[in-house]
Each structure stands twice: as C-alpha cells, then as structure tokens.
From TrEMBL, chains A, B:
InterPro entries: Homeodomain-like_sf, HTH-type_TetR-like_transc_reg, HTH_TetR, Sco4008_C, Tet_transcr_reg_TetR-rel_C_sf. PANTHER family: HTH-TYPE TRANSCRIPTIONAL REPRESSOR SCO4008 (PTHR30328:SF54), TRANSCRIPTIONAL REPRESSOR (PTHR30328). The keyword DNA-binding applies. It comes from the Bacteria. It comes from Microbispora siamensis. The keyword Heme does not apply. This is TetR family regulatory protein.
Length: 194, 194
DNA sequence: GAGTCCTAGCTAACTCGTTAGTTAGTCTAC
DNA sequence: GTAGACTAACTAACGAGTTAGCTAGGACTC
C-alpha cells in the first residue's frame, strides 16, 4: 500500500485546524491546541504542512473550494441564488468566520481564484439581462453581485450586524430567507438615474 | 494644575492602540509596538489602562461612540442614511476593521449600547412608516436596518466582498454611493408576500 | 525461519526568541 | 520632600518550530 494511514491523520489535522482557526484566527490559533484536538504530535503538523501559515492557507483553500462547488450561480434567478447563499452561510458559520479572518489577517490571498469566479458571474449576469432597458439603466451587475452577497451573509456568524443586533430575526431563518429574496428581487428590478 | 500632561499621553496611547489593533486585531497586536508608536514607556499602558484587553475595549468604545455621534439616523430618508453610512465607512477604514475584529475576537462586547441604538432606530422607522400598506406588508424595520448597514459597508475595508472582488467599483465612490442609495430605496419600497 | 536492515508513521522532549506584565527607581515641579 | 509622570531593566511564561529517536512491519539475505 502506498500511503498507510497518514492521509487520515492529515485529514484529522485539517479538521482540527479549521476549528481552531475559525475560532481564533491565525494570530490567535495555537499549534499545540490543533495537535491535541487532532490527537497527534505537533511535529506532524510541520511534516505534513510546513508552517502555521501554510496550514491556514491549506485549510482556507480547501474550504473555499467547497463554497464554489456547492453554490451554483443562477443569473436568471438572483433571489434564489441569494437564498442559497443565505442557507449556506447559516449552515457553515465556521467557514464564514474563516473567510472573515482571512480578509482581515491576510494581505491579498488567492485573488486569482476569486476574481475568476467573480468575472464569470458578472458575465453571466450581463448575458441574462440583455432584455429591454426602460428609462434609467439597471444597476451594474458587479454592484448587484456584491450587494447580493452582502445581504445574504449579513446574518451569518461573521457579520457584525445581523446576529449581534437582532438575534430574534436570526432565530427564524425561513422568514429571513424570504425577506432576503424579496429584497434582492427589488434591487435587481431597480433602475438608477432620474 | 490637576492632571499635568498625562491626558495627552493617554490620548497618544489610544491613538497608537487604535492603529495597532485595527491592523492586527487583539491577538496580533503587540503592546511594545503600541508603546513605541505612542512614544512612551510600555509600563504607562498598564498604569493608565489595566491590560491589553481593557485597552482594546477602551479603544473600541471610544470609537463606537464616534459612530453614534457622527451618524444621524433619518428614518424618513433611508437612502440618505445609507449614503452617509457609506461615506463614513469609506472615510474610516480603520474603524471598520476595528469593529470587524471585535466581532470575531470578542464574545459579546457591549451589547447594551448597541442594542439600545438598534431599538431606537427600529422604533423610529416604525413611527415613520405608518402610512398606508398596500397588498403585502413592507419588509420588517429590523430587517431593513440590517440590510442597509450590510449594503452600505459592503465596500469598506473590512468587507470580504466589495473591495477585494471589485476594486474598480470601490475606486469610484460617488457612483457607488448613488447605487447604494438606489438599492436601499428599492428595498424600502419593496413589499413582501405573494 | 532467524537475523538484519530499512522505511513510514509517529512521539517526547527540547530550544530559544518573543511577549504580557512587573519592579524599582529617576526626574521635575512645587 | 513629596507627588505625579515617566523609564530602564527585568521576569516568567508562552509558543512556533526542531531534534533525536522510537516502533511496527515489510523485505531481503543466508
């Protein structure tokens, strides 16, 4: 056999690292705690991953990939997309925190991957919205996309607004999702200009 | 004279601490760096503020107070309010990061202050929106308020979306502010239900 | 089929720079 | 000569990263 059970150990480390980084960020995370939670020796972290930093980068990339895999973008159903993003964000609070930490603690990160995904979505939205334009243009796709993401994640664990300010709303995800979808529909139909 | 120039030193420490915490968070901040930036001895930090944690809490409270002081809430002009929040967020990237760090690193923080502000705004919105309701109710004020904040700050330095994904938009604040105002107007006018 | 070597997977214990927090004392003005 | 503002130097612990070595089992030799 090629690998023995080292792959299982790696997986356990990545899982423990995800939890630790999600809870404490890069600077606050403790390598010893990760090793203990993974039930293995600290040195293995340095054998399998080179440093705390690269371990974080690995965890982040692995989890970002999950986002892109699980969230299909539907340019012709933006409210539905927002609802799915909302569900995903509520179902994965740890992942949302991880992304927030990365945004604060890392300079740039893997801009390439994210920019490609962004451009693809913008292009798809432009293609889907070539129907008639009345007086005043629609809001720009690039703007609309960010607005959708901001709205859909405003009640996630990583947001300073939603869950902290109105815990009552966050406790009722179904109506919250409906309200987000309604709001996105309103923005998508909105026209700018006089 | 009562105080000598210790007040000036305290102010320099708070300023240096704001910058350090804003850049690195609580766990990543270094007390020695703060002292050096403030041009004073490290021990003074512990004399004037008790610990790193309470220094952070002091910095946060002082700056949150600025937010509440400088941002007048206008329930009858929500797009205008959103535009002002946007301007404030763009003008104070360090403060936005500070709030983001606080949300991630602290358990609860000063819930009382924020909850009071939130309730006051919700009540003001309800009072301002007692005109006729057509078929389908308006979106709940509590929801609308969080949505506005999420939209208005989506391009701030602390957001994982706006500035990182579409730096082009962030470079043109005037149209961005207009788009945010339009979007908020659309949501505020939106009705929910069938 | 016993002895020896080798490798993958793993661990205990260590190093050493860093860091929050402290102590003891200096200096200046009144 | 005392009190307020401040400093240099210290301490104790922590924490990332390292070293040296253990153990099980396969394989190869005779």
């Amino acid at each position: 056999m090629a690998t023995g059970n080292s792959e299982a150990t790696k997986a356990r480390i990545l899982e423990a690292a995800r939890d630790e980084f999600s809870a404490h960020g890069i600077a606050g995370a403790r390598v010893d705690r990760i090793a203990k939670a993974a039930g293995c020796n600290k040195n293995l972290l340095y054998i399998y991953f080179q440093s705390k930093e690269t371990l974080f980068a690995t965890v982040l990339e692995q989890n970002l990939r999950r986002v892109y895999d699980e969230l299909r973008f539907t340019p012709d159903d933006l409210p539905g997309y927002a609802a799915r993003v909302f569900d995903f964000a509520m179902a994965n609070p740890g992942l949302m925190r991880l992304m927030a930490w990365a945004g604060l603690e890392q300079e740039a990160g893997d801009v390439a991957l994210r920019n490609a995904a962004q451009s693809a979505k913008v292009a798809a939205m432009e293609a889907a919205a070539h129907d008639a334009d009345g007086p005043g243009a629609r809001l720009a796709p690039e703007f609309l996309l960010t607005a959708i993401l901001a709205l859909a994640t405003a009640w996630s664990a990583a947001s300073p607004f939603g869950p902290r300010l109105s815990p009552g709303l966050a406790a009722d995800p179904a109506t919250l999702r409906a309200q987000i979808a309604d709001a996105v529909a309103a923005i998508a139909a909105a026209r700018t200009g006089p």
